Amino acid sequence: MTKTKTNLEEQIAEASYVCGRCGSCRNVCPVYQEIKWESSSPRGKIALAKDIFLKHKSDKMTEFYTRRLLECTLCGRCEEICAAGIHTRELWLDLRESLREKGRLHPNFRHLSEQIALTHNISATANEYRLDWTDDLDDFEVPQSKDGSEVAYFVGCVSSFYPQLAEIPQSIVKILEQGQVSYTVLGGEEWCCGFPLISAGMSGEAQALARHNMEKVRALGVKTLITGCASCFHTWSEEYQRLLGEAGGEAEKGAGFEVLHVTEYFARLLREKRLMPAGISETVTYHDPCDLGRNSGVYEAPRDILQAIPGLDYVEMCRNRELADCCGGGGNLQMVDSGLSQAIAGRRVGAAVETGASILVSACQQCVQTLREAARKEKLPLEVMDITELLWRVLENERGV
Amino acid sequence: MEVFLKEIFGSRMTTDPFELEQYTKDIAYIPPILVRLLAKPWPRAVVQAEEPREIASLMHWACQNRIPVTVRGGGSSAYFNAVPVQEGIVLDMNRMQGVGAVHATGKAEEAAVWVQAGTTWYDADERLRRQGYTLRSYPTSAPAATVGGWISLGGLGIGSIRYGHLREQILGVRAVTAGGEIVQVDNPGLKSEVEAGLEGSGLCFDDFFGLEGTRAVITEAHLKVRPLPEKETHLVVVFRDVRPTGRLLQGLGQVSSVFNIHFSSPTFVAVLQKKGYALELPQERYCLAMDLAARQTEVEEAVRTIRREVQSLGGEVLAPEAGEAEWSSRFKALRLKQTWPSLQAAELLLPVEHFAAFHEALTKLANRKHTVVVTYAHLVSPQTVLLMTLFPSDELNTLRYLGDLSFISRIYAVGKFYGGKPYVVGLWNTAYLSDMYTSKALKRRWERKQKLDSPNILNPGKAYKAPFFLSRPVFGLGMGFLGALRPLLRAGREKDD
Ligand SMILES: Cc1cc2nc3c(=O)[nH]c(=O)nc-3n(C[C@H](O)[C@H](O)[C@H](O)COP(=O)(O)OP(=O)(O)OC[C@H]3O[C@@H](n4cnc5c(N)ncnc54)[C@H](O)[C@@H]3O)c2cc1C
Ligand code: SF4
Ligand code: SF4
Question: Per CATH, the architecture of B103-227 is what?
Fold first, then answer.
């Protein structure tokens, strides 16, 4: 359930009172690392929240502070390291909700919400074109809202509407076909999962999307819902329970299906020998998407996939798993300051190159897009792809295609 | 001023009040009424240096124009150490980060590395680990505290029991003097402050340690480091009573592979457990978390020795998971604030032989004053513990908060009785300078400061002399008054317990 204005403000006040101003969160924050002014650090933002919400100094809610609150990727690095155990990510979301309450939303967020209300997706394209990415698939038809399927594949807006990323959903369905999985997609019945709205402080508006998606997937009677998008996964597995008011696991239980990220599902298929990858001779490193790793706790499945590929030389980035740095693409930051987002991505691809890897994979379309752009801009000798694209590449080799 | 600063620092300088306000605070809450009485914390500008040459230009200009400069690292100190008390410029060091390559140095061919002053200890360690090395010691604020900050303040923490004070781990420092000269000062092994004083106005090694950035700006430090240990083990032992805890503490400094010893009082554990933390620890026990690091055989031998000792003292060694959990939460003491969002603290260096007696006296005092106190501590040398005592307060109630300040002076008084003294000075502890130094040492410190920084522009108002309201007689009166008032201001305190 979404919070009322009173309990929202009380929670902000409470969390900010706990902050000890120690600054442990500062150096790990990708935004502070770029801006370097205290006001951009988690501690700086909390200090002002404390003044405004605990000490009722409302004049401190300035334009500039609003901007600082939106300069955040919601990566959760600050929460992981917080010396006082504050759930900072939730605090940032609450603060964004309060910006909405106060009519201080970023114009691009408002535009986003209007867009989603109109098309039920984050692009300007009508939702019935959700399956345009399947146009290039000549060998098979992608089943749409097919009754009796075991698995529903929730594609996500970024994969569906960004042609430059079409190879990701294509790889996913090709792998499903090869694994002889009985699956279906929802096509035009799939709506935005609501994550961009939650990130924008408009979780109330995300409720309708959650309800719709939950109903449609339930109606299919599938056993498993999979998604290749880390943020859709986080929203389905962590946020829908709250949005739909179904406490602790009830949403999943009530729905009668499990929610898995594709990496978890494909790792399962590999274990069951339903997928048999060929070898590849490449050095590969993996970027943990914040919404899959730190914010949802999935670390091993992607690594299991990579380690199941014969000949692949797997190297870890120095900061990995719960300590992984952000790609810069989260928290709707691109809508607020795309330059800042790119600068953060630049650091992350730099760290990937330091490992000696020739391929950087991630498990999130948003990360892939941001990191790919950064590697291109920095002219780095690094191929950036989704883990499903790499997996399909080696499965394709195995088939001798 | 602005034109000059802009020329050197460009967009890395600000006079925007929105930014400046952030530099008027540190980790401790001080009621505005007190701040107004004692300090002018608003800087006129904040600048972020990227290289020593910029700092040299700044200092040269500041010296000529007599404008105070306060250096700021992580801002994780608590006594206004990094907050200006006479306005001026704040020099933010956080852009000067970086760790060089580990190399062998000196006759002993010890491993060492140059680290930039704005690097946090946490980052330094992460980067060293990539090279197969690790720090010899670091503060429990490692994710926040910078190399320059910990050299300038404290220098005792995790690893000190094994490797000594930070001073012993530093081979040299690069710095900028108050007059704007770029220098390198090597550890001579070596000259004391007294010898340096005889030598003239050139900086000596001791001018950096614990001196709160009042004599020079550190830009880089040459640190001794250690190879990653073959074996690390983490244990927790618990006792029903503080006496055997104290006795064990006294002996632990002699165990060769001991790297860190952390004490938690039963009340500290209870307050954490209220919010679901530290559940692996039993209730109503005095806990010692012990971290051992060395060769496998040495660690195993040390564990055997400790087990024997614990048994003979009637204590208990907990399951290994407890040790792991304590170690992985070593940077998380502030979780206490989940239960007590507003608290006050007294930090003491105390002879380990009086640890138990001090603790008993503190408990008595706390009971008498109807105050719940929690204590945690690190054994920082075979003879000394660095002890933190905290109690709940309420910064939303200024009178109560002021009243509670008097309790800190009561804790210090008990500490003094047992041979203890406050750990760092800053502004607020200038009231205790005479407990920390002899009058001769204080005089010498001040003379040295005047030699190195005659216009007194580097972090003025700290470390050497108390301002009027913190001078001993005035402070004593003030604390006496607040102490008398405190029982009347205790409304609502029960809910802390
Ligand atoms: C949770 C927590 C745990 C802590 N644990 C410990 C501990 O184990 N041991 C301990 O000693 N302290 C501890 N502290 C206190 C504090 O973190 C340390 O004193 C730390 O060394 C301060 O470093 P900083 O970079 O934050 O310095 P700041 O707070 O920014 O500055 C401290 C002083 O150093 C000066 N200074 C900073 N950088 C430079 C420089 N480059 N050149 C010259 N002067 C400089 C400043 O002017 C100031 O006087 C702890 C604090 C917290 C919040
Ligand atoms: S969530 Fe990430 S970007 Fe946002 S404040 Fe925390 S560390 Fe910084
Ligand atoms: S680490 Fe936590 S307690 Fe420390 S300043 Fe950051 S938010 Fe506050």
Answer: 2-Layer Sandwich (3.30)
State whether the beta carbon of A26 lies less than 6 angstroms from ligand 2: no
Nearest CA among A306, A300, A299 for reference residue A284: A306
Which residue's alpha carbon is nearest to atom 16 within ligand 1?
Answer: B77
Contacts of B147 (CB under 8 A, 6+ apart): B73, B115, B116, B117, B118, B119, B120, B121, B124, B218, B221, B223
pLDDT score for B329: 97
A27, B76: Cβ pair inside 8 Å?
Answer: no
Global pTM reads: 0.95
CA distances for A99 relative to A208, B44, B297, angstroms: 21, 31, 59
- Residue B149 Cβ < 6 Å to ligand 1: yes
Mutate to test the interface with A, among B76, B95, B340 (most CBs of A within 10 A): B76
Which of A21, A37, A62 has its CB closest to that of B19?
A37
Distance from CA of B94 to the nearest CA of A (A): 8
Beta strand pairing call for B45-48 and B89-92: parallel
The complex's ipTM works out to 0.95
| Residue burial B242-251, b: 16+ Cβ < 10 Å; e: rest | bbbbbbbbbe
Contact B76 CB / ligand 1 (< 6 Å): yes
- Interchain contact, B26 vs A55, CB within 8 Å: no
pLDDT tens, residue by residue, B383-416: 999 999 999 999 999 999 999 999 999 999 999 9
Q: Is A17 on the interface with B (CB under 8 A)?
A: yes
Question: Which of 3.40.462.40, 3.40.1010.20, 2.70.40.10, 3.60.15.10 is the CATH number of B231-421?
Answer: 3.40.462.40
pLDDT-derived band at B420 (thresholds 50, 70, 90) equals very high
**Domain range holding A191?**
108-268
Instruction: Give tens-digit pLDDT for A353-368.
Output: 999 999 999 999 999 9
Chain B partners within 8 Å of A18 (Cβ): 337-338, 341
Please indicate, yes or no, whether residues A79 and A148 belong to a single structural domain of this protein.
Answer: no
Residue located nearest, by CA, to atom 2 of ligand 2: A75
Q: Kindly determine whether residue A24 and residue B143, on different chains, have CB atoms separated by under 8 Å.
A: yes
Ligand 1 within 6 A of CB of B217: yes
Q: Is B148 in the pocket of ligand 1 (CB under 6 A)?
A: yes
Q: Are residues A291 and A361 in the same domain?
A: yes
- How many domains would you assign to chain A? 3
- The CA distance from A85 to the nearest CA of chain B, in Å, is 6
Q: What is the atom index within ligand 3 of the atom nearest the CA of A43?
A: 5
A72 CB within 6 A, ligand 2 = yes
- Cα of A27 vs centre of ligand 1, distance in Å, is 15
Tell me whether strands A283-286 and A258-261 are parallel, antiparallel or unpaired. unpaired
CA of A24 to the centre of ligand 3 (A): 6
CATH class of B2-92: alpha beta
Q: Measuring from atom 7 of ligand 2, which residue has the nearest CA?
A: A29
